[in-house]
Amino acid sequence: MATMAANSAPVGAVGGVGGAGSPGRIWLLATTTFREAVRKRMVWAVLLLSAVFLSFYSWGIVRFKETWTASRGGGLPLSFAQAVDLNVAFGMFIVFFLAAVMGIFASIGTIAGEIDAGTFQAVLPKPIRRWEVVLGKFTGYALMLAAYIALMTAAIAGIVYIVTQHVPAQLAQAALVIAVAAWWLLALTVLGSTIFATMANGIIVYMIYAFGLAATILESIGQLLRIPSLEQSGLIISIVIPSERIYNYANYLVQPSTNIGFGGGGGIGGTPPSGFIVPFAVGYLVLLLIGACLVFRRKDL
């Protein structure tokens, strides 16, 4: 918090930055937020868990290749490439989960926490508009999540390719879709931080994330049991809370021929998820950010 005040205080004093207009101020706040975010213990805890996961994942891929070679597929109705894609899809599911947790809990106090600490008393009297603070902070955390997802995707792709000499053709596109899902949750968290206290915001947003996951499972159960009301209920909830539905599209990009889901939805022969969910989510998160700007504009500091 103190670092933010120290770094932001010169914004109005330095003519070059102050005269750069909104893009310059937003970028300054974004880079400051990024530096603060990567220093948080929670972020380093997620990175440690990610390293542990990659260690076990590497061992698992090696064992998969050995077992597949020894049993010649074990009679599974999958080709080797399909089986590899399925392993990659599981890895990307973990990446999405860890990115979601990192984004939510790194940013839960991005507005409320600094109001409580009185940081904005030093920052906002400078020529920095409140909406610039919201967009700057969102951009900083979004960059952090993008870097994390890119690094984890590259690590998974490298491990899998070294062992199997195969990676899914659309893995890069899937990583971008997962980033959109993580950014949607981030935008929701930023909005929540303008309304709720830090701890309450974290609990509420994580529960909303869980509801989105439950909704896709509910929809899958409705499809399996042929209960239209259950399926439609899950569909409606998953559109209102689209994070898991966005991930399901990324999952489909990784393994289009099997589409076996790890959080509800999908399955061999199932209906492919619509790619329209991505532009829908981008528009949705823009509305969330506009809401955050409007709420913060009227916020009593």
Describe the SSE topology:
Layout (H helix, E strand, L loop, with lengths): L1 H7 L1 H4 L1 H4 L2 H18 L2 H31 L8 H28 L4 H6 L1 H5 L6 H35 L6 H23 L4 H28 L2 H13 L2 H12 L22 H21 L4
Helix pairs in contact: 1-4, 4-9, 5-6, 5-9, 6-9, 6-10, 6-11, 9-10, 9-14, 10-11, 10-13, 10-14, 11-12
Describe this structure in words.
The chain is globular and about 65 Å long. It is an all-alpha fold and 301 residues long. It has one domain (2-297). It contains 14 helices and no strands.
How far do the termini sit from each other?
A: 15 Å
Strand tally? 0
pLDDT < 50 stretches:
1-19
Output the number of helix runs: 14
User: How large is the radius of gyration?
Assistant: 21 Å
Mean pLDDT: 86
Helix % is over 70%
Structural class: mainly alpha
Q: Kindly estimate the percentage of residues that lie in beta strands according to DSSP.
A: under 5%
Instruction: Tell the overall outline.
Output: globular
How can the largest sheet be summarized?
none
Order of SSEs = HHHHHHHHHHHHHH
Integer count of domains: 1
